Amino acid sequence: MKRSLRKRGEVFYADFFVDGQRFRQTLETTDWREAKAKEKELIANAKAGKISCKKVLVAKLPFRDAVDRFIKDRAERLTPLSVRTERERAAAINQSLGDAQVCHLTPQMVIDYIHERKDSGISNATVNRELDVIRGVLKKAKRWHLFTDEIHPLPIRHTLGRAMKPQEKAHLLKLAASREDWQNAAFAAVLALNTTMRGCEIKQLRWRDVDFKEKTLVIRKSKTEAGERMIPLNTDAWDVVLLLLKRARTMGHVRLDHCLFPACEASHFDPTRPITGWRTAWRNMTRAIECPNCGKLQNPCDHCCNSECNADIKEIKSPLHGLRFHDLRHHAITELAESQTSDSTIMAIAGHVSQKMLQHYSHVRLEAKRTALDALARRTEKGAVLQEHEDSYVTKSVTNEGSERGGESQVVERLVELVGIEPTTSSLRTMRSPS
Question: H/E element holding 42?
Answer without folding.
Answer: helix 32-47
